[in-house]
Design a protein that fits this description.
alpha/beta, 13% strand, binds dihydroflavine-adenine dinucleotide, TIM Barrel, 49% helix
Amino acid sequence: MLRRMLLAASSSDRARRLITSAPYTRGVVSRYVAGDSAAQAVDVTRELLASGLLVTLDHLGEDTMAPDQAAAVTAGYSGLLGQLAAAGLAQGGRAEVSVKPTAVGLELAEHGEKTATENIARICAAARAAGTTVTLDMEDHTRVEATLRIVRELRADYPDLGCVIQSSLRRAVADCAALARPGSRVRLCKGAYDSPESVAFPARRDVDRSYARALRVLMAGPGYPMIATHDPRLLRIAAAQAELAGRPAGSYEYQMLYGVRPAEQRRLAGTGAQVRVYVPYGSDWYGYLVRRLAERPANVAFFVRSLASQR
Ligand code: FDA
């Protein structure tokens, strides 16, 4: 119930105004967000790479409603990739980027999907020039079909374009089977959005079961699974499945969010596993922050205190 309320707040303008101006907010934001600028994101990337982790960078922002803004986000990603390459951080895919289709135009009133496809192609070209890759984030269930169409279209030119599958959706296992092709990069997560029961599992244990099933499909296939979870049980299942499938450490990777279980990130990397940290940066952090708060009941206290302090 609380999770539902928080996820509803992620798209409420009133809640956005209250939370972004609350006195406690900055401290929580800095736990999950690398900073406002690309320069700060590059600094955090350098530190994480130096500690043996890999990185994917997300320029915060979603639901772009103007073509100019979509073009600016696209240019921001290309600029960031240039900076990463110049600093020697992108080569070999050590630092890559994650992109939300709605941030680069998917929801524009006219030609949204075409604009998003063209903008993502531009980011893929910049990533290739920098020696690295792009992964498309998955947003709420209404955007899944369009996002997968974009992935299918662009993989003709950019076969290393990655995408996300959310195990909370009933279609997850079938989507993983369809995506299990040689070289196919698939990031499997539980899903951070609230979706109706017609398309999603309401019970967390079913989301977890779906995760394990989808992961088995990816691990048994010829692609490159990206295991995006902090859940200790699923991490154990992933390790067992990798062993069962006879996968060497370089043929898959673990992924976790910046600020979430950092000690576990370092511990896993210390075992010789590949571990990538998802690092968001930018000033438009509201939607991202509220989804992170919704994932952890303890964080709800923060939310309630912020609202109370504004009365
Ligand atoms: P779960 O939520 O059960 O958490 C397991 C444990 O991890 C918790 O008990 C707690 O210890 C810790 N934890 C988890 N979240 C925390 C938080 N916010 N703060 C503090 N501790 C926390 N979703 C989506 O819909 N589309 C996407 O494109 C992506 N992309 C993505 C990339 C990467 C690299 C990751 C790791 C995750 C995503 N997600 C996502 C988010 C994902 O769907 C999911 O909401 C979170 O990863 C939390 O789920 P867990 O699998 O960690 O399990």
